[in-house]
Amino acid sequence: MASGILLAGAGLALMVGVVSVDGGYLSVLPGMLAMGAGTGLAMTSSTEAITSALPREHQGVASALNDVTREFGTALGVALLGALLSAGYRNAIDAPLDGVPGATAETAREGVANALDAAHRTGPRTRAVADAARKSFVDGRQQAMWAGVAVMAVLSVCVLARGPRRPAPPRRTDRNRPTRRPVPDPETTGARPGRARHRYGRPGGGGRARRRAPGKRRPRC
Questions:
Q1: d(CA 55, CA 177)
Q2: DSSP letters along 95-120, please?
Q3: Higher per-residue pLDDT: 138 or 220
């Protein structure tokens, strides 16, 4: 689990250091690959730790707890990192918008898509505003990714310090405990020790033996 968290944090750090305005998708790809691999390793081991901590009859509770933590963590992470990205974008784009009309500047501060749309209404400063919007978005994204790296580092330390060392053995209860059949006593059953009693009283016989009347012989063909 700790290795997956560290790998995901390394992916976020790659997305901070390699991503640039002119880099394109290839600058994002290494960090996304590392972050995806680390997330897969961490989620698999965390699911195993949650389900193995409860007995078999409480696996429904373990599955529900696993789903709740995953959904809640995803929503919380998106909200926090999105807020940091938006705040970083607004702080970075304030200076390049000096001299831009007020309505256009307010539209550009709302987001990078609005800024690119509003840049066409700035006349000769269209290219400068569009480039400033893209750079401000990258700066805000880097700020959010650094916060993610810090969270991953703290989480990895907590897992190494207090996380599960190995999977816990399944707990045995009365429901899944095997039952032992009583061994029959030869004195009460009447069977001789060392010799099994057969159904028809004849060892090795496949059926009931027929008795012939005295004095009769089997005809020969």
A1: 12
A2: GGGTTS-HHHHHHHHT-HHHHHHHGG
A3: 138
- Give the global pTM: 0.64
pLDDT at 129: 84
Tokens encoding 161: 């310090």
Under DSSP, the state recorded for 163 is S
The percentage of the chain sitting over the pLDDT mark of 90, rounded to a whole number, equals 9
Within 8 A by CB and 6+ apart from 194, the residues are none
Q: In whole angstroms, what is the distance from residue 141 CA to residue 19 CA?
A: 9
Where b means 16+ CB within 10 Å and e means fewer, 92-127 reads bbeebbeebeeebbebbbebbeebbebbeebeebee
Instruction: Please tell me the predicted confidence (pLDDT) of residue 60.
Output: 87
Residue 34: partners with Cβ closer than 8 Å, 6 or more residues away: 7, 8, 10, 11, 14
